[in-house]
């Protein structure tokens, strides 16, 4: 009889749910998202004023029903991830603001966000999900590829768009 017991650390638990972009957790996460993507692009820390301006320049329009949805991901109860979808047309949703806090990367948060956002897209009638991203966001591009998103020709002319992806939902 084996008296030695295995001790395993429990896996972190992600819960992702719809949340208004105006809640304190959603606002904090959207600001962190913008600070990271702008900082990586400019190769420096961004100021609070630059974050404020960026959020004005790129508003979160359409990220609520009936045109979209915003979600917040919580790891063991702590809000550490977010993302949104908006309908581009009756059958096409677009992913935006997908972000996982650095402290929680590698714990399944990106996959949990994508699953929730794809489910929200289906609920809104979308048959496919599209997104654009930049070349320097290599982790994001790898995440999308791992989850069945394929590169497609440009579907928009966003000022920072360098790669476009799509995944069929039906």
Automatic annotation (TrEMBL):
Q: What is the protein's name according to its record? A: N-acetyltransferase
Check the record and name the PROSITE patterns matching this protein: GNAT (PS51186)
**Keyword Acyltransferase on entry:** yes
The organism's superkingdom is given as: Bacteria
N-acetyltransferase domain segment(s)? 21-170
Identify the keywords attached in UniProt to this record, alphabetized: Acyltransferase, Transferase
Alphabetical list of Pfam families matching this protein? Acetyltransf_1
Q: Which InterPro entries match?
A: Acyl_CoA_acyltransferase, Bact_Acetyltransf, GNAT_dom
Output the Gene3D superfamilies linked to this UniProt entry.
3.40.630.30
Q: Does the keyword Acyltransferase apply?
A: yes
């Amino acid at each position: 009889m084996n008296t030695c017991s295995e001790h395993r650390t429990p896996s972190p638990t992600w819960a992702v749910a719809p949340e208004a972009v105006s809640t304190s957790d959603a606002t904090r996460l959207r600001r962190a998202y913008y600070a990271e993507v702008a900082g990586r692009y400019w190769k420096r820390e961004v100021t609070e004023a630059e974050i404020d301006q960026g959020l004005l320049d790129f508003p979160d329009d359409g990220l609520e029903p009936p045109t979209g949805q915003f979600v917040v991901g919580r790891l063991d109860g702590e809000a550490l991830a977010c993302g949104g979808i908006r309908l581009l047309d009756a059958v096409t949703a677009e992913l935006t603001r997908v972000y996982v806090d650095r402290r929680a990367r590698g714990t399944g948060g990106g996959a949990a966000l994508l699953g929730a956002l794809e489910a929200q897209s289906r609920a809104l009638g979308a048959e496919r999900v599209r997104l654009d991203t930049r070349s320097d966001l290599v982790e994001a591009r790898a995440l999308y590829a791992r989850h069945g998103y394929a590169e497609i020709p440009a579907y928009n002319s966003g000022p920072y768009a360098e790669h476009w992806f799509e995944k069929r939902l039906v």
